[in-house]
Amino acid sequence: MKKALFLFVVFIFVIVLVLLVNSKKPPSPQNFFGGFGDIKPGSSTRTIIENNLGPPLSSEQIDNGSISKYGSDNKYWTNDVYYKGDVVRLTITKILPPQNTSFSKQVSTIGEKPTTLYGHESNIGILLYVYLGSGVAFLANKEQDIVYEEWKFVPTNIASFLSFPETKGFAVEKTGSGPEL
């Protein structure tokens, strides 16, 4: 009985030792890249993005740079990476259920008041809430507590943000007709 118990303990010890030796070392923090949400505008490069996410579904030249489109949780919408040269300047991520689409939860930890921008969908309550100092914006319906897109960029001022080609059609003041928001 003692011999069987001893062999069993040795067997378990050998298995644990083999697993520890063969286990892969986790990536170092500077090389860790968990996905689209880990892209850092202003420092992530096209090479880093493509090495980690693979080739985009499509790419095209746009004003002042290029855009790479990657798949999202919805086959009809893409998550987009905007480059100036080879450095990421903006990402736009579609926020789809079952992800956290609650506007109030998304902004609960941001310690600044947003700059609200009005665009083509403002007549139905969808506005762009821009947190310039945090480098994040949400295309959202605040009244219905729904986020549709998350924009990440290098923290900036409103004039620079509005110079992005992607903000064409957005303004600090409401224009056009529609319900008061």
Description:
This protein has 181 residues and is of the alpha+beta class. It is 22% helix and 27% strand. The chain contains four helices and eight strands, in the order H-H-E-E-E-E-H-E-E-E-E-H. It has helices at residues 2-22, 46-53, 103-107, 158-162, and strands at 58-62, 65-71, 78-84, 87-94, 115-117, 127-131, 136-141, 146-153. An eight-stranded antiparallel sheet has the order 1-2-3-4-8-7-6-5. A hairpin with a 6-residue loop joins strand 2 and strand 3 (78-84). The protein is elongated, with a radius of gyration of 23 Å. The N and C termini lie far apart (79 Å). Residues 24-33 have low confidence and may be disordered.
Q: Indicate the proportion of strand residues.
A: 25-35%
Number of strands: 8
* Large-scale geometry: elongated
Largest sheet report: 8 strands, antiparallel
Taking the alpha carbons of the first and last residues, their distance comes to: 79 Å
Helix and strand run? HHEEEEHEEEEH
Calculate Rg over CA atoms: 23 Å
Arrangement of strands in the largest sheet = 1-2-3-4-8-7-6-5
Mean pLDDT: 82
